[in-house]
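<tokenise_the_fold>
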Amino acid sequence: MHKDKIVISWSGGKDSTMALYYITKEKNYEIAYLLSTITEGFERVTMHGVRKELIKSQAGSLGYPLLEVYIPPYASNEVYEERMRDIALKLISEGIKKHAFGDIYLEDVRKYREENLKKWNIEGIWPIWGRDTRELALEFIKLGFKAIVCVVDTMVLDKSFVGRDFDEDFISDLPSSVDPCGERGEFHTFVYDGPLFKKEVKFKLGEKVLRENRFYFIDLIPLS
């Protein structure tokens, strides 16, 4: 049976993980890469602030190659699109014409992605699009995945939420205005174990840091 090669956008968080989970259930896909954007100079995943070493360990435990796209700090859309175009050309040269995302309901984000993909002749795949975010969050937990909250936006969520386990207590404690999956960027997660993992990704908690006078990050320090 022919399988279409597919790349999955990979932040290392729960939504990427659920997109991966559902892609693995599809018999007609072959996962070629997990694709992560890394901020140059910081060597961390863009927006999530997770060290590159941990994302590499994560991909290794999941059993897929990691494809890294380096983005300058505070990159403009033009620079971002230029870097992604270069990656798209690489993917097409390898016969990869499908790209999966973990977006759930933000129409403007999906439209932006689809407009760029169309330029590059790549088809967007949206495994968890339209899902109820509370149900999706609880499904993630019930499946046995484990994640830690690595960033919170203090405009909408207290800094005490950063560094917490993403579990049912966390979801119950969220203000009603905050999406249970943090779809609007209220918080981000790092997934370190679960049914797709060959082994747990080990780390210890470092310091909490406020950036841009708004986002609280917790440093996750790799353990060998």
Observations:
- The first strand starts at residue 4 and ends at 9.
- The mean pLDDT is 95.
- The beta strands are 4-9, 29-39, 44-45, 66-71, 98-100, 123-125, 146-153, 187-193, 203-211, 215-222.
- The CA atoms of residues 144 and 166 lie 11 Å apart.
